[in-house]
Amino acid sequence: MSEKRDLLILGGGLVGMTLALAAARKGISSHVVDRADPADLTADGFDGRASAISTASWNLFTNIGLAERLEPHGCPIQSIAVSDQLRPGRLDFTPEPHEGSLGRMFANRELRLALFEAAKAEPLISWNSKVEVTARSRGEHGVEATLADGHTVAARLMIAAEGRNSPTREEAGLVVAKWDYTHRAIIAGLTHELPHENVAWEIFYAQGPFALLPMLDDADGRHRSALVWTVSEADAAGVLKLSDRAFLAEVEKRMGDIFGAVTSVAARSSFPLGFHHTARITAPRLALVGDAAHGIHPIAGQGLNLGLRDVGALVQVLADGMKLGLEAGDAQLLARYEKWRGLDAFTVALATDGLTRLFGVPGRTASAIRRLGMAGIQRTPVLKNWFMDEARGVTGDMPELLQY
Questions:
Q1: Where is the FAD-binding domain (predicted)?
Q2: I need a surface site. Which of 2, 119, 253, 316 has the fewest CB within 10 A?
């Protein structure tokens, strides 16, 4: 058996590894266990899988020492344009120059590279990759996981960071409210004729949102964006099988002349869209973070940021408690984490679900009403600033690690 550490983090993805690094900054040790091969997750090439990192999440990366490594690879989001089917009445969110950007876009590969490099160099992180968990146990005095290679790792607190289908959450019997949107997100990297001017586009169609997210130009100076196109589950297989030429024709039809001609598309991937939210995010000696606790529609690009807010809150709760002599699995600390994160995560989840349903109502009348509402927001600076602060993640009770 390995040495007993403070945390046993099951899942070493973007949220799980950020948690391990943030904890290490506070002197909290961890075992990280993940079944994926890091080499597969950091393979060369841009396939469109990217994440919007809010201002608050960027503060977290800065505070754990990753900003300098990541800065050259991030594309600032200077404005967000929201449109109903490219009809008149567009809504623009553009902060004042002194307020900075609304966030940054990163290829997921670059985020993983930075996290993995830092984790390898951190002695407080024991990283077990390419290995399955065959058994989990939580007892009065600690937690353990048995790995497929026969190795056992022990800690004081178990953290489920395995994503939407978390086996740890299921084994713990934590109740999940969920539903399927019967839609699928098609992901691809695009190169296009005109520069995106650092504008993120969210174009709503009755079939689902069509998002174009700004990425840095490639090495040859070609302009790039990440596409997240929501289609019905029934149409997804057909869209994925389209030839590149036919796929680009469909994309150009939906994006109009925003970026001129689309010149190429990278490999396409997809994932089903659904909503889930756990009634509780803790159990004895167990905490959930990220998609293990809450899964939302990518409509506002807040999924990863919601998980990083979990990270900031959990690390602050643990660090504060350990200063008082409490150990990481103490029930008082888990209760504080539950109270802090439960309402915020639920509020964001409901907001994204509501937006998805609102813009999914078909018909000209519904479109006209939506555009009238958007025009009202466009003319109301207080409302626009509130929405921008929400996008930045700088509202509410922010953990210290997410503050500048």
A1: 6-341
A2: 253
Q: How far is CA 159 from the centre of its chain?
A: 18
Q: Are 203 and 255 in contact (CB under 8 A)?
A: yes
| β-bridge mates for residue 184, sequence order | 231, 272
Nearest-angstrom CA–CA distance, 137 and 134: 11
Instruction: Say yes or no: domain 5-75+105-178+274-360 is CATH 3.50.50.60.
Output: yes
Tokens (6 digits) for 218 = 């490639």
The tens-digit pLDDT sequence of the chain (404 residues) is 678 999 999 999 999 999 999 999 999 999 999 999 998 888 887 666 899 999 999 999 999 999 999 999 999 999 999 888 888 878 888 888 777 788 999 999 999 999 999 999 999 999 999 999 999 999 999 999 999 999 999 999 999 999 999 999 999 999 998 877 788 999 999 999 999 999 999 998 878 889 999 999 999 999 999 999 999 999 999 999 999 999 999 999 999 999 999 999 998 999 898 888 898 999 999 999 999 999 877 766 678 999 999 999 999 999 999 999 999 999 999 999 999 997 777 666 656 665 666 555 666 776 666 666 666 667 677 767 767 777 777 878 899 999 98
230 within 8 A of 204, measured Cβ to Cβ: no
In Å, what is the CA distance from 280 to each residue of 79, 303, 354?
36, 18, 22
Q: What is the DSSP letter of 139?
A: -
Separation CA 313–CA 336 (nearest Å): 9
Report the distance separating Cα 20 and Cα 191, nearest Å: 35
CA distance linking residue 137 with residue 282, whole number of Å: 15
Entry pTM: 0.91
Q: In angstroms, what is the C-alpha Rg of the chain?
A: 21
Positions of E strands within 165-260: 176-192, 199-205, 208-215, 223-232
